[in-house]
Automatic annotation (TrEMBL):
Topology in membrane: Multi-pass membrane protein
Protein name per the record: Cation acetate symporter
Annotated compartments: Cell membrane
UniProt similarity note: Belongs to the sodium:solute symporter (SSF) (TC 2.A.21) family.
Source organism: Nonomuraea typhae
Length: 546
């Protein structure tokens, strides 16, 4: 009884601390600038910690460790993909931070004539990507609490998902960006500390000899190719060259989504608006890269260590998707005490990340759609903030419902789908807006809707939704039950098709439109994005339409 009781006590302690921070932030939030961007008062180091906290999600801590534990070498490719993604992010986010004010739509609409269309498209993309990302965090919460409190029923997971959803709604409605950022900072410190403790302890079991740990993991995995590529991606299937080809293409598709998707994630973009200047933004990236890099290296020890000490069968028996591998490792290393601490850290991770995602979505709905489309760019700040708070409640309820449906999926896998959508819909519009003089509002709208639509449709008709069955147990590995099969797209991740399609739609939309571009506005955007001159002024350009 000590384990669940201690775990529950730590959960309550973290929730109490974060609620105090949330209501402190509510008392110190005066307007839209405070609610959306924390008053732009955070330092580069503080924002770097918060940014790393945003990025090191439940998919990183629980999902990647589980995929490595179950898939071996191929599972670690998730860690590599998430880490390499920061190279592109470093290139783009500072430019976007200088050009925008609160949201991605501020950047995309800066130089175009038909702003309402652009902002509406950006809102649709922001909400869709954020909701898919939210699913992963909340699914992870269900698996986490079920293990820690000794609850194995579906009802327990559903109750946990609902509870986490309610907490994130409270954080965003009352705390805004100030409260969310401080929660992220605390969570980042806890997560790095907890992961470091687990890594040191698991390596100590093998005399800090990585080779010994990998050897033990291979023996406990149950199959000879555990430490070789091809266990999960690019698997060779005898007598079926077409299926073999699709397996290899699926790996390429996943890699593209992970590497290109980060720069298009709405909650990552909005975090850079919380710092006062471009120098602080660069400092944020540098700190985040260092923390994220060390963290993803440690996921190797978590995943392989779990297989070495717990065993693949025990991991799969607890959760077939592997989401509890890191927690089972903690129990094997330090008993109920370390399990309770690790669980509390994971719970903090989930609550912090979902709050950032909901805030990004509600900000986009309030600032972009309500403020600039419905109110024609002339709302009162109090109205915008009220709409943002209401929107956070609606988005939270939607995410809760979808997470209940997807509660059996691996959380890292769900995040990969969100990354594919971000790369397909947002990245083409961002890159071409910043670097192509001929680009216009028609291109932005076509690129966003084309990339987003393609990724959603391809996922709907992929093995993710129907048709994927375990060859041994005959149980469904898709969202829908076994026997339901309407998949026609063979890849599980749509990025290989949807990302080029998004760029193609954006280019064709711009070229086929007769909309005139404003060269002065493009030049102004270029100077502003590169130098930061004039960024984040209180007054914004009056809406221009044709």
């Amino acid at each position: 009884m000590m384990g669940p009781s201690l775990t529950f006590a730590l959960f309550i302690l973290f929730i109490a601390i974060t609620l105090i921070i949330t209501f402190w932030a509510r008392a110190n939030t005066r307007g839209a600038d405070d609610y959306y961007a924390g008053g732009r008062a955070f330092s580069g180091v503080q924002n770097g910690l918060a940014l790393a906290g945003d990025y090191m999600s439940a998919a990183s801590f629980l999902g990647i460790a589980g995929i490595i534990a179950l898939s071996g070498y191929d599972g670690f490719l998730y860690s590599i993909g998430f880490l390499v993604a920061w190279l592109l992010t470093l290139l783009l986010v500072e430019l976007m931070r200088n050009a925008g004010r609160f949201t991605m739509a501020d950047v995309l609409s800066y130089r175009v004539r038909r702003q309402p269309r652009v902002r509406t498209a950006a809102v649709a993309s922001t909400v869709t990507v954020s909701v898919f990302y939210l699913l992963a965090q909340m699914v992870g919460a269900g698996a986490l609490v079920s293990l820690l409190l000794g609850l194995s029923t579906d009802t327990a997971k559903i109750v946990t998902i609902v509870a986490v959803g309610a907490m994130m709604i409270v954080y965003v409605m009352f705390g805004g960006m100030k409260g969310t950022t401080w929660v992220q900072i605390i969570k980042a410190v806890l997560l790095m500390g907890g992961t470091t403790v687990l890594t040191v302890l698991v390596l100590a079991r093998f005399g800090f000899n990585l080779s010994d740990m990998l050897g033990a993991a291979a023996r406990n995995s149950g199959h000879a190719g555990y430490l070789q590529p091809g266990g999960r991606f690019g698997k060779e299937i005898a007598g079926d060259p077409l299926r073999t080809l699709f397996n290899k293409l699926d790996f390429i598709s996943l890699a593209l989504a992970l590497v290109l998707g980060t720069a298009g994630l709405p909650h990552i973009v909005s975090r850079f608006f919380t710092v006062p200047d471009a120098r602080a933004a660069r400092t944020s990236v540098n700190w985040a890269i260092g923390l994220v890099g060390v963290f993803y290296l440690m996921t190797l020890a978590l995943g392989f260590g779990a297989t070495a000490l717990v065993g693949q069968k025990a991991i799969a028996a607890q959760d077939p998707a592997g989401n509890t591998a890191a927690l089972q490792l903690a129990r094997a290393l330090g008993g109920d005490v370390l399990l309770a601490f690790t669980g509390a850290v994971a719970f903090a991770t989930i609550l912090a990340v979902v709050s950032g995602l909901v805030l990004a979505s509600s900000t986009s709905l309030a600032h972009d759609y309500f403020g600039h489309v419905l109110m024609l760019g002339r709302p009162r700040e109090s109205q915008e903030v009220a709409v943002a708070r209401f929107s956070s409640c609606v988005i939270g309820l939607l995410a809760i419902g979808l997470a209940v449906i997807a509660r059996h999926q691996n959380v890292a896998f769900l995040v990969a789908l969100a990354f594919a959508m971000a790369a397909s819909a947002n990245l083409p519009a961002i890159v071409l807006s910043l670097f192509w003089r001929r680009f216009n509002s028609a291109g932005v709208v076509a690129g966003i809707y084309g990339g987003l639509g393609a990724s959603v449709v391809l996922v709907l008709f992929s093995p993710v939704v129907s048709g994927k069955v375990d060859p041994v147990t005959r149980q469904s590995l898709s969202l829908l039950p076994a026997g339901v099969d309407f998949h026609v797209f063979p890849l599980e991740n749509p990025g290989l098709v949807s990302i080029p399609f998004g760029f193609l739609c954006a280019v064709l939309g711009a070229l086929l439109s007769d909309e005139k571009v404003d060269p002065e506005r493009y030049q102004e955007l270029s100077v502003r994005s590169l130098t930061g001159t004039g960024s984040h002024r209180a007054s914004v350009r009056r809406r221009r339409t044709t």
